[in-house]
Predict the structure.
Amino acid sequence: MIVQKDILEDAYGPGEYDPALYEYARIAECVNGFENVRDTHLAQFHAQGFLAIQHAYSTAQVAAAMAAVKALIAGDNRAFRGVQFERGIAQEVKRSAGHAREMLVRKLTRFVGLDPRLDVFGEDPRLLDILTRIMGEPPALFANQAMLKPPGIGREKPWHQDHAYFNLPMHTCIVSAWVALDPADPENGCMHVIPESHRDGPVVHFKRRDWQICDTDVARHRIAAVALQPGGVLLWHGRLHHGSPANRSNRRRRALQLHYIPASVETIATEERLAVYGSEGKDVVC
Ligand SMILES: O=C(O)CCC(=O)C(=O)O
């Protein structure tokens, strides 16, 4: 992340990419509500590497979360320093205020613990029950961010595996939960996944438009786009290949992202992670 006086910018800026990287073969099917998640859906999670659930959270919870996000951006919590803008627009950020400034924000880092209206999402017993059933033990929250991908300027998040970012043992069953606050679809940069790619093991990541899988290693013909209504949640395995195109629409695409690990897991050294996921020292090119 880049710090310019009081303005925190995203670590990576917008980059040109081939739109074919997000040409999807299908829109992913969804379960309707946490209460309808059966063991067959959990088996599907293990087989496919993801599970999408519509109407998991209520309209009231989503509205409260959006108000809480707005308040954090407005600076209502003076201790919060996690507002991160899209990169390269610092002058515009300095000139803007209120709603216009809000529309330039890419990410809120570590929102959990700041506002009960946001904490309810990650603490929901129905979510925790599903995570426990997937992991075989109680989950612990490892990382969290609000991903706001603003209209027109919200950059792509290139294809990657979450495990490549986290210093966790290679066997760890990481599960990420991504909650849509706005309708999320291919036009405003919804999540795209490669079903079953979590079975391919760790993939070397490169610093290109982001810390990412090489574009030529993306299994383009297998892409599923995950369109969600507000309150819908996508769960995915930490080794699933996933990414999201830029938001070229005039609509917002706000989401809360929570990464869970089995409570018993302990962290490893960065070198150990990069020995697997990093490209340096390996005879590979991108
Ligand atoms: O919200 C997005 O567009 C991308 C989220 C994601 O995949 C990540 O941060 O790991």
In short: The mean pLDDT is 96. The longest helix spans residues 59-74. DSSP finds seven helices and 17 strands in the chain.
